[in-house]
Specification:
By secondary structure, the chain is α/β, with parallel strands linked by helices. The protein is 44% helix and 18% strand. It has a six-stranded mixed sheet with strand order 3-2-1-4-5-6. It is elongated.
Length: 179
Amino acid sequence: MKKISTASAKQSKNFSQPKLTIGLDLGDRSSWYCVLDEAGAIVLEQKLGTTPKAMRDVFGAIPRSRIALETGTHSPWVSQALSELGHEVIVAHARNVRLIGESRKKDDRIDAQKLARLARIDPQLLCPVKHRSAKAQADLTVIRARAGLVRARTALVNTARGLAKSYGERLRGLATCAI
């Protein structure tokens, strides 16, 4: 009588669902993504809109995967949205990933491939960063908006003083409103 091996049955359960690795190169209006299978072969490369709806539609239909993207303007909300869909998200420090940052061939499709390959091999090669919480980001936005308004007010006051001086006049201390 032939003995049935239990090792092969357990092994097939562990690998029943393919482990996908995705590189996502974010752009302002559109983004490229590259999906690699366990062996590192490209399964899919496509372009999508950089909108919350497009991200949900595309990545909501993909099984849980490891997704790598670079830091940038859109990376905080994209990483949050992908995490909420159940994906493992790695946000690469854009300046520290020299393979992409110092590349002579700057192409969104190629950058997405490189992100996917680096995430598949070793996520630490991406110098991962953790984004601020939504509250901390909102607080920082208020601080930066105020600083921008103060700079604009200062520039306007200095312009008015400079224009008055060209006519031989001086503007005394202008009562500027406190921001």
